[in-house]
Design brief:
The chain is an alpha+beta fold and 176 residues long. It contains 6 helices and 6 strands, in the order ββαααβαβββαα.
Amino acid sequence: MKTPESGSGPRVRDAAGAGWKIPTTPPRLEDARLLEYRHPSELPMLCLSLATLAIMLIGAVLFKHKEILLSIVGIWLAMIFTSLQAVTYNLLRGVEVTASQFPTVHQMVEELRQRFQAPPTRVFVVRQFSVETETLGFRAPYTIVLPSLLLDSLENDELRYVLGRRSDKFASVTPA
């Protein structure tokens, strides 16, 4: 572990010889400003994506390609339908996290929901071979799907981190 020459400032370590300076203890972010912390390229990438979509739609209209327009509208409608059916689908293939079922996870979700000022969120635990969590929804109540393999393999702090990342996605798109 390297430390600064003068002895002042936080202790840092060299990350696997890559020359990165990583603090030994992660910085504590203010809860009140959590929604302000964003990656610097987030807005430019969003603008680029929207510009690309607009160019594709204008090109399809100008060149009179109805198939392209219909396929874009069809995909969009399928995404909306899937999102609206998420709660029903996940109730059929798993179990919902409530105060009586998975009380520790329920307490974490409620704590994070209050911390991020997020809208109502339903969490489901499902049996599947993947360990990827899913987030679904265009409007509240949003849905988070936790695979049982992931739930079994994580410690409480790690699970809180995963749930916090998913809850933050909903809080950042919900108008205050």
